[in-house]
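Technical annex B. To support the medicinal chemistry partners, we prepared a structural model of the target in complex with xanthosine-5'-monophosphate, based solely on the information shown next.
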Amino acid sequence: MTDFQTVLVVDFGAQYSQLIARRVRELDVHSEIVPRSISSEEMVAMDPIGIILSGGPASVYAEDAYQLDPDILEMGIPVLGICYGHQVIAQTLGGQVSRTERAEYGRTSIDVQDSGSLLGDVPDGSQVWMSHRDSVTEVPPGFRANASTNGAVVAAMEDPDRGLFGVQFHPEVVHTLHGQDVLRGFLQHCGARGDWNRASIIESQVERITEVVGDDTVICALSGGVDSAVAAALVHRAIGDRLVCIFVDHGLLRKGEVEEVQRAFGDASPVRLITVDARERFLDRLAGIVDPEEKRKTIGELFIRVFEDTATQVGDARYLVQGTLYPDVIESGTDSAATIKSHHNVGGLPDDLNFELIEPLRDLFKDEVREVGRELGLPDAIVNRHPFPGPGLAVRIIGDVTEERLEILRDADSIVRDELTKAGLDEEIWQAFAVLPAIRTVGVQGDGRTYAHPLIVRAVSSEDAMTADWVRIPYEILDRISNRVINEVDGINRVAYDVTSKPPGTIEWE
Ligand code: XMP
């Protein structure tokens, strides 16, 4: 029986609230997100050693602002409020929250007046990251104020006797240089043993999956990417041969990808693999669809239909394993977070889904998943693969997805990736690819006029795909890519490089 301590993170709707849970896990303490609708009784039933109230987009004065169940602060379980959570604690316990003259977004330095229990390792004047308009101006009775910034009268406060703490800044983001020290201070106050690690995820998931699945057969949507490979390996560890992996060739894969996946997961691998040729089915359904969300939803639904048809060949499997990650969940939209795009495996699922989903990686970020993969003994070639989206090249062809355009993009994309690999940039790059826009431009080649597509090259660095920056690829390499693409790929007469970070862009173009 797995039995480790847990810290609950109450999600008030910040795009980054899962980052808090992840930072806690980095300190070897298990952490889970819970919805803001959770009651104090439900919390007690989960037996947490501590509770963190996340940030959120609303003002405590907004009409629909979430009011904290005051019992949560009376349970004797230590509570840390961050940003909105900090203000909610102040407001609930009789402090003062005011709208300040100016908002405070981004980096600022903190004046530490009294280190207290949380700020012992945070030097006076060190950098913290802020994102707020309202500010705590008076601490509740029993609290003391520990620090301030230009835009926050009370940037940190605490009542250690009651185990209540609040910080206006975001300890979870890397720009708060001593953020982990703040979280460590809180966890120490909670009596954390640090009894959780990657092996614990494997242990607890294997236990859960075994219990849920019983004697049933399970199918797994395998794309060849790291997420589904790790999910499959986890489930395989739990139920062995009763797992059947299904790899759908939807015709939207990159050059040589079908063969690559079959080589990696074929005879040499312990999992059973069925490859389904669904190229015609996908391309027929996608014909004429140009809207990105419609494309994503169509592909998400078709994946499920193919899995349903294939499940009948393997004893009517009821469970479907997906390698869904946390960023897929948050970007697809939740009760409290906005929809950025419908990831095929979350927001793209049809309403009449008949499978029960098993998603053992749903709370994790990709780099955490890679660690789990290593722990499970997956080869580096799989664990270090660059991400590739489930909807494949369809979200990199702007406009209509046709066989002719797919062929152009496949050839160009393989040159882009080949040159970056040869230049030794794979490690620095999170993901690199080509995009084919739905426009044509005029050029001149061999004394003649051309009227063909431009190709966009995109290469980004990232830690977890929630934010990303464009990679400063040396000009000589961009030059080589441009020459090769234009000379070797019919239909392209111009190459551009995308210099947009995320935000404001996203990594994929659709
Ligand atoms: P964006 O474009 O949202 O992408 O910045 C973040 C990461 O997710 C990948 N991605 C997807 N992966 N199904 C997936 O499995 C999807 O529908 C999907 N959409 C985007 C993207 O390649 C990047 O790594």
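Notes passed to the chemistry partners:
The chain has three domains: 6-190, 198-383, 396-497.
Residues 296, 327-328, 331, 341, 343-345, 387, 389-391, 431, 465, 502, 506-508 surround xanthosine-5'-monophosphate (CB under 6 Å).
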